[in-house]
Amino acid sequence: MKAEKIREWDTKEIRARIEEEEEELEELRFRHATGLTESNPMLLRTKRRDIARLKTVLNEKQAEETA
């Protein structure tokens, strides 16, 4: 997921996507911790970075609105 693409979305879409990504990350962490399935540790890293990217763009948009 690229920041340029995220910047095209409005704040509602970004918040919804953050919520979805956090739920997916929680599920991945659970599967990884229990060892029920083979989970790729790189997926955890990718999800964390995507969430951080989403939150960064959301903060940028909120700063623009208040300025």
Automatic annotation (TrEMBL):
This is Large ribosomal subunit protein uL29. Signal peptide: none annotated. GO terms for biological process: translation. Keywords: Coiled coil, Ribonucleoprotein, Ribosomal protein. HAMAP family: Ribosomal_uL29 (MF_00374). One of its GO terms (cellular component) is ribonucleoprotein complex. Gene3D superfamilies: 1.10.287.310. Pfam families: Ribosomal_L29. Belongs to the universal ribosomal protein uL29 family. The keyword Ribosomal protein applies. Residues 11-64 form a coiled coil. GO terms for molecular function: structural constituent of ribosome. Transmembrane segments: none annotated. It comes from Longibacter salinarum.
